[in-house]
Specification:
Layout: H1 2-19, H2 24-35, H3 37-40, H4 42-58, H5 62-73, H6 79-92, H7 96-109, H8 113-134, H9 138-148, H10 164-169, H11 176-179
Helix pairs in contact: 1-2, 4-5, 4-7, 5-6, 5-7
Length: about 190
């Protein structure tokens, strides 16, 4: 984890040096990155902890577990994947398939920050440009909308038809119109 923090700090420092008065946007970005470092790197700590547990369960060095993680980054259709797969299979023999399954589950269960940030950024970009025209009060309405809007589709079936607020709290919440103060119309 320390290596990640050092690399992150290096990038933030480089951005600060290049920001200066001529590029206030870069300066703001560098400051925001520095202030949010621990939150942005939190996912890595979660994965690290899972890999340590796998290492202890299989009684293998952490470096070997990380090599299996790197195998998951390669395309299964590539020659490099199968060459490394064969090397690890030979090296680990009977533990290989169990280890592949455990590492695969750990990777699947750990959210990837880059994909989440990219997804969130692509969804929010247009809304934030609207804020410039509509004012800061618009953010409250935007928050209400984004928290109560249900996912239409997702790679994870348990998310379909649920809002982000429902997924985070595990509780159903009222319809967004009711949250704005309107009473639900019931037919007799």
């Amino acid at each position: 984890m320390n290596v990640r923090q050092e690399l992150f700090d290096f990038i933030a420092t480089e951005l600060q040096q290049r920001g200066g008065k001529s590029y206030p946007t870069i300066r703001k970005l560098a400051k925001a990155l520095q202030n949010q470092r621990d939150q942005l790197l939190a996912f890595a700590g979660i994965l690290d902890q899972k890999l340590v547990e796998i290492s202890e369960d299989f009684e293998l060095p952490l470096l070997t577990i990380r090599e299996v993680c790197l195998l998951y980054r390669k395309q299964p259709t590539s020659d490099a994947y199968w060459a490394r797969w064969n090397q690890l299979h030979t090296q680990l023999s009977g533990k290989f398939h169990g280890l592949m399954g455990a590492v695969g589950e750990a990777l699947k269960a750990t959210p990837r920050a880059s994909s989440m940030v990219g997804n969130l950024n692509s969804r929010l970009r247009n809304y934030f440009f609207l804020r410039k025209r509509l004012g800061d009060d618009y953010l409250n309405l935007l928050q209400l909308f984004l928290n109560s809007r249900c996912f239409i589709r997702s790679l994870k079936p348990e998310r379909v038809g649920k809002s982000p607020k429902q997924l985070l709290t595990g509780e159903a919440h009222p319809h967004w119109l009711e949250m704005l103060g309107f009473k639900r119309f019931q037919r007799a």
